[in-house]
Structures are given as structure tokens and as C-alpha cells.
Design brief:
The complex is a heterodimer of chains A (385) and B (312).
Chain A lengths: L3 E9 L5 E10 L4 E5 L6 H9 L6 E6 L2 E2 L10 E4 L11 H11 L4 H14 L15 H13 L5 E5 L7 H18 L2 E6 L2 H7 L2 E6 L2 E6 L1 H6 L4 H6 L6 E8 L2 E4 L2 E4 L2 H8 L6 E6 L4 E3 L9 E7 L2 E4 L4 E10 L4 H4 L9 E8 L10 E7 L4 E3 L11
Parallel strand pairs in A: 3-8, 3-9, 6-7, 7-8
Antiparallel strand pairs in A: 1-2, 1-4, 4-5, 9-10, 11-12, 11-14, 12-13, 14-21, 15-20, 16-20, 17-18, 18-19
Helix pairs in contact in A: 2-3, 2-4, 3-4
Chain B lengths: L1 H20 L3 H36 L1 E2 L9 E2 L3 H7 L2 H34 L4 H13 L2 H11 L21 H29 L3 H10 L3 H29 L3 H6 L9 H11 L3 H27 L8
Helix pairs in contact in B: 2-12, 3-12, 4-5, 4-7, 4-9, 5-7, 7-9, 8-9, 9-12, 11-12
Classes of the chains: A alpha+beta (385), B mainly alpha (312).
């Protein structure tokens, strides 16, 4: 159990490439922190620096107030779970889990007891004498977890531990990791590129892009108040809709109708250095079938023809094509949303009672106060500053 | 349960029988083509290795000395009795075994170090690999003459380092040591190459996991790298042991087997070519073949338990 402080940490390689730039986060004891971002954003490098597998170029890593920069991985007392699980193929499950204890020269009886306890916690007891090759993917993943928890380390470091599992198992393991972390209370740093994992697992999320932290906060805060276009596009599935928009006197002109500049939109429009052409973002669930909305005061309406309708069960997703060009922004291309085509597309999440049909026009209502405005160049969220 | 299982078993047996019988025209043509493609290699093997082996077995069962051709006769296994009760043969056998064990052991350690150097080197990797491989690229006989002249008193630079009057190649112990040195120098690169291939199959992530788990450099080597390299090490040891047991050229050039430094191959050569005794020489060759086969079988039995990740 430990507090981990990453004090302005930078990783620069010999060829000058900066993988992580001025990473500054204080991870509290017992906290579950997620590092998330597209591939190459520096999240794994950050984790490796915490583990000691990579050197820190600048800044200081402190665990419980003690400087760790020069400590070898074995002296940091942290356990790591790798994407490939990194199980030792020549050892049985029991030997794999006991390996860190054996290296720590723990007595035979206590080792035995701890291995049994970890195995019980992870339902691995029947497989203790098998080799990893004879296990399924999910079982291997649990062995990797067992090897981590058996030592009772100061922190768990997890590098995409679920990405090699199939979708169903991933959801299952996600909840069991969450439950395990809560019951053990061990400080955990978890790296993933999957925003769903980030949203569901973490106490706090650190979103990274190109070595830079974009935003830090609890999942809901990142979702409701994205600081920039990248975060807005990365968090949430389906992604936030983005459309070109223009600020005029008291009005925001968008392809889905004119929105009066009141409340937070009004304040955003009056801010300094606000260009006239902006990007408007609105989440799919801010839409609803207009016929199902009774109190449609604070809202706009828009009529479009449904291109595609996906019935998800608890909701319906309706896809539209707007007669305007798609928003192009470097902040979006990396966010990993839908591949942007030539046309501007829109997704609306509707109540399953909606009568929307493919190929038929439907009138949609949307919450105008849920609209975000972004600076087209910097990507900054104008409604959140 | 039982019925279902046996039903399934008989069904699969039926399926495999059907598969064996009902070869389509295409499959038969493919099989025929396969046989034709293998045929040249198979025929050459039979002619150049199969027949000589059979012929030497036949010779070993005869009294056949080219100096007394009229005494030629089938004498069963008595050549084997002669050889196996001969002190000369057993001396050669133990010398060969000594050279084999000592040189392969040294090669394994040196080869492992070189393999690490070649695999891990960050700067000058190409240079290191080239330099390491030079001895392997030199013809053994040429290298052996180099060693011979170097150790010859008066002319050799290595002999010059020794106290005056010593001629190491004329004394049994030093001569065997020099033979081992020449052998190690020549074949360590081969060992290093095979071991480097083994190093490359150890996943980097396992070593990282081990270091996070608390393993020191040495523990990572002994507990992760070595066990995972076991198949590669066994292959390297097998190749080198078989080779070393048949050692001939280095000894032929350096001492020609004098002072009791001859290997079994040297003995066979002296009897067969020098002594013209085809019966005894062939017997020795067959015995060498048998020994080499035993070594190979022992190693291959070792492979079975070696593959990491195999269940038990």
C-alpha cells in the first residue's frame, strides 16, 4: 500500500524522441488510476518507469515519500501484470504464483499458505499443478493476477491485462479485477487503450496523447466536462458527434439548427479569442425522438432521414448524414472514434419506444445546454474554460 | 457415457479407415509426386552412406588383412573380441572421451558468454559477430597446422613463451591439452551460434516480469533464460558431442596419435589405412558408430522432457 508521486516526469530517448512529457500526478494510497490513450501516447512507458523497467530522464518518482528513480525493479516492491501475462512456461501454476515469494526467500509453509489463498481468491485451486500451456486465456490471466497479489506488494501495475481476452471474458474479468482491487485496497495503476475499461474501472483517469497528459479526473467528470476535443472524442461510446458551427449575433448556426446563445453557451461565446467558426459537439444520448419528449422547452429540434438503425435492446442508435462536410481535426483523428468520412455523420441514441425506421425521416429533439463548443485550432473546450 | 465414448471412438476409427482407403485421384498423384521428389536424395543416401555402413559391418565380421589376403575368412565376432580386449583401443577410447567431455564443457560456457555478447551487444554488434565467427570459417587442417607450428620449439611463438627445452606436443598431458585448445578455439563459434538462436526465443517480457518479481540478473539467467533455452542447449550439446567424439583432423596434424594421444578415429585410421587390416579397422569404425548412436539416443531421450511448456 503506498502513495505514488510522479513529480514532473519526462522520458526522452537517446535520439531525442520525447515519449512522456512532464507527467505530474499524485496517486493516493488505495487509489485505482487508469492511464488511457491511443497507442504510442506514452502510457506504457509511464508504467514501465514506475516499475523501473525504463529509466526516468527527468523528474522524480516517489513512493511513500522515498525517491525511487535509481532503484532496480526488484527493490521497488511492485507487482506487474503484462498483456501477454508473461507466465513462466516451464513452471506449474503453483510455481508461477510462488515465484516472487521464492525469490524473496519466504518460508515453505507461508509460501504454501499464501499461494493457496491467492489461488482460492481467483478460482485457480484446481489448476495449481498444471503448466500454463494447458490453461485457457482467462485462466492464464488469473494466474498472472495471482502472481501479482500473492506478494502483497505496494502497488499493482497492469499493462493492458485484458486485451488478449475475448469480449465476454473481458467484461467478466473487468468486474473481478475491480472487486479484487477494492477488497485488497492496493494502489493500482492500470494502462489501457480501451475507454470502456477506463470508464468502468478507475477512481481517476489520466488521458494521455503524444506523451502529454490531456486531462485527469474521475470518469464522470471527464465525460461531462472534457477539457478538449481529444478527450471529448476519446471518452464515450459511441463517440461525441461533432459538427461545424458558426457564432453569430446571439445564435449558434449548426447543420442541426440554430441554437440561441444562452447560459453556458452564451458565456462561452463571450470569452476572449473565440473565433466565429467553431466546432460543436453533442453526445448521442443528448438526442431523443421528439415525439417522446413532452417538455421540450430547453431544446432544439432537427429532422433527418435515418440511414441506419441499430437496436441495442435498452436503446436504439440512429445514424444520419448531414448535408455538410465532416469536421476535420488532428484532435479527432487520434481519438480513435469512427473513421471520419467525407460527409458529416451523426449518431443519436433514442429510446427503444421510438418509432424511427430506416430510410424514414424522423424529428429529433436535443438538449441545447448539453452542447459543447471547441476551438477549431487548439481543440480547447470553450464551454469549460 | 461409456456407450457414447466407445461409439465416438469407433466412429473416428471408421472415419480414419475410410480416409486411408478412399484416396482421391488427386491425393494419389500428390503422393506419387512426393515419392519421386524424394527419390534422388534417398538413392544418393543409400549409395554413399547406407552401402558403406553395411560394407564395413560385413568387413568387421571377416579376417581380412591386405598383407595376408589368402587368410581371408568369416570369423564372426572375434574381431570385436580382439578390439574390445585391446589396451590400445581402450586408451584411445578414454582419450577420446576426455577430449569430448572437457572440450564440449568449455565450449558450452564460452559459447554461452559469446552468445550473450553477440545477442546483447548494443555497439559494434556486427563487428563482434564477425570476429567471433572467424575461427569457424578457417579450414580445420590449416588451423591445426597453425597451432602445431606455434607450439613447436624453436619456431613457434607459443612454444617460445614456455621454459627452454620444453616441447609440449611430445608429452602426453600437454599434447592432449593443446588438442583440446585447438578444438575449443575452432568450434566454440558454432556453439555460440546455436545458443544465440536459443537466446532469441526467450521472450523479453518474461525477463521483465522476472525482474519485477524480484529476480537478480543471475536469477533471471538461471531460473528463466536457462530453462527456456534447454532445447537449444541440448541440440548444441548433441551436435558438438557427436562431432567431438569423432575428432580426427586436429589430432592427425598435431600429434598423429603419438604418446597415447590418439582418438578412436585415429586408431581406426591407423589400422585400416596404415595397417591395411580391413577387418580390425572396420570393427573399430562400427564400434565408433555404435557409440555415437548411443550418445544420440541419450540426448534425444533428454529432449522429451526438455520442451518448456509441455504438460509434465
Amino acid at each position: 500500500m503506498a502513495e505514488i508521486v510522479l513529480d514532473h516526469i519526462t522520458k526522452r530517448y537517446a535520439d531525442g524522441t520525447v515519449a512522456v512529457d512532464d507527467f505530474d500526478v499524485r496517486i493516493a494510497d488505495h487509489e485505482f488510476v487508469i492511464l488511457v490513450g491511443p497507442s504510442g501516447c506514452g502510457k506504457s512507458t509511464t508504467l514501465n518507469m514506475i516499475a523501473g523497467l525504463e529509466d526516468i530522464t527527468e523528474g522524480e518518482l516517489r513512493v511513500d515519500g522515498r525517491r525511487m528513480n535509481e532503484k532496480a525493479p526488484r527493490d521497488r516492491d511492485m507487482a506487474m501484470v503484462f498483456q501477454s501475462y508473461a507466465l513462466y512456461p516451464h513452471m506449474t501454476v503453483r510455481e508461477n504464483i510462488a515465484f516472487p515469494l521464492k525469490l524473496a526467500k519466504m518460508g515453505r509453509e507461508e509460501t504454501q499458505e499464501r499461494v493457496e489463498r491467492a489461488a482460492g481468491l481467483l478460482d485457480l485451486a484446481p489448476y495449481l499443478d498444471r503448466k500454463p500451456a494447458a490453461l485457457s486465456g482467462g485462466q492464464r490471466q488469473r494466474v498472472a493476477m495471482g502472481r501479482a497479489i500473492v506478494r502483497d506488494p505496494k502497488a499493482f501495475l497492469m499493462d493492458e491485462p485484458l486485451s488478449n481476452l475475448d469480449a465476454k471474458l473481458r467484461v467478466q474479468m473487468r468486474t473481478s479485477i475491480s472487486r479484487l482491487q477494492k477488497s485488497l485496497g492496493t494502489t493500482t495503476v492500470y494502462v489501457t487503450h480501451d475507454q470502456t475499461e477506463a470508464m468502468t474501472l478507475g477512481d481517476r483517469i489520466v488521458i494521455m496523447r503524444a506523451g502529454l497528459i490531456q486531462q485527469i479526473g474521475p470518469p464522470q467528470e471527464l465525460y461531462d466536462h472534457p477539457r478538449n476535443l481529444f478527450v471529448a472524442g476519446f471518452i464515450g461510446s459511441p463517440s461525441m458527434n461533432v459538427v461545424p458551427a458558426r457564432l453569430e449575433e446571439g445564435l449558434l448556426r449548426t447543420p442541426i439548427g440554430d441554437i440561441p446563445l444562452r447560459g453556458r453557451l452564451g458565456r462561452a461565446a463571450e470569452g476572449p479569442d473565440v473565433p466565429r467558426d467553431v466546432i460543436a459537439g453533442i453526445r448521442p444520448e443528448s438526442f431523443e425522438d421528439a415525439s417522446l419528449v413532452h417538455d421540450a422547452e430547453e431544446g432544439g429540434t432537427f429532422t433527418g432521414t435515418v440511414d441506419l438503425l441499430e437496436s441495442m435492446g435498452p436503446e436504439k442508435l440512429a445514424y444520419f448524414t448531414l448535408d455538410t462536410g465532416a469536421v476535420r481535426s488532428e484532435h479527432l483523428s487520434e481519438a480513435g472514434g469512427e473513421e471520419a468520412g467525407e460527409e458529416c455523420r451523426l449518431v443519436a441514441q433514442l429510446d427503444p419506444k421510438s418509432g424511427a425506421r430506416r430510410g424514414q425521416p424522423v424529428r429529433l429533439w436535443y438538449d441545447t445546454q448539453a452542447v459543447h463548443l471547441f476551438h477549431p485550432k487548439t481543440g480547447e473546450n470553450l464551454t469549460e474554460r | 457415457m461409456n456407450g457414447a465414448a466407445s461409439g465416438r471412438a469407433s466412429a473416428s476409427r471408421g472415419a480414419s479407415r475410410a480416409k486411408g482407403r478412399a484416396l482421391t485421384e488427386g491425393q494419389r498423384a500428390e503422393r506419387r509426386l512426393g515419392l519421386w521428389l524424394c527419390a534422388p536424395a534417398a538413392i544418393i543416401m543409400v549409395v554413399v552412406t547406407g552401402w558403406p555402413i553395411v560394407y564395413s559391418v560385413l568387413l568387421s565380421l571377416q579376417r581380412y588383412d591386405l598383407r595376408f589376403p589368402e587368410d581371408k575368412a568369416w570369423i564372426g565376432l572375434s574381431n570385436y573380441a580382439t578390439v574390445l580386449s585391446s589396451e590400445v583401443w581402450w586408451n584411445a577410447f578414454w582419450v577420446t572421451l576426455l577430449i569430448t567431455v572437457v572440450s564440449v564443457a568449455i565450449e558450452l560456457v564460452l559459447g554461452m558468454l559469446l552468445a550473450f555478447a553477440m545477442y546483447r551487444a548494443i555497439v559494434g554488434r556486427g563487428l563482434i559477430r564477425t570476429v567471433v565467427l572467424i575461427p569457424y570459417g578457417i579450414v580445420t587442417v590449416a588451423a591445426a597446422y597453425g597451432w602445431k607450428y606455434a607450439w613447436t620449439p624453436g619456431t613457434g611463438w607459443l612454444a617460445g613463451l614456455l621454459p627452454g627445452g620444453s616441447a609440449p606436443l611430445t608429452e602426453r598431458g600437454p599434447a592432449i591439452a593443446i588438442i583440446i585448445l585447438a578444438e575449443v578455439w575452432k568450434t566454440t563459434p558454432f556453439m555460440a551460434l546455436l545458443l544465440m538462436a536459443g537466446l532469441a526465443v526467450v521472450p523479453e517480457e518474461l525477463l521483465r516480469a522476472a525482474s519485477v518479481d524480484g529476480a537478480s540478473l543471475w536469477q533471471r539467467f538461471t531460473r528463466v533464460t536457462l530453462p527456456l533455452m534447454k532445447p537449444a542447449i541440448l541440440v548444441a550439446l548433441l551436435f558438438r558431442t557427436l562431432d567431438a567424439f569423432r575428432i580426427f583432423d586436429n589430432i592427425y596434424v598435431l600429434t598423429n596419435g603419438s604418446q597415447g594421444t590418439g582418438s578412436v578415429s585415429i586408431s581406426a585410421y591407423h589400422n585400416l589405412i596404415g595397417g591395411l587390416n580391413l577387418g580390425i579397422g572396420s570393427t573399430m569404425s562400427v564400434l565408433i558408430l555404435v557409440t555415437v548412436a548411443i550418445i544420440a539416443v541419450v540426448f534425444i531421450l533428454g529432449f522429451g522432457t526438455a520442451a518448456p511448456g509441455s504438460e509434465r
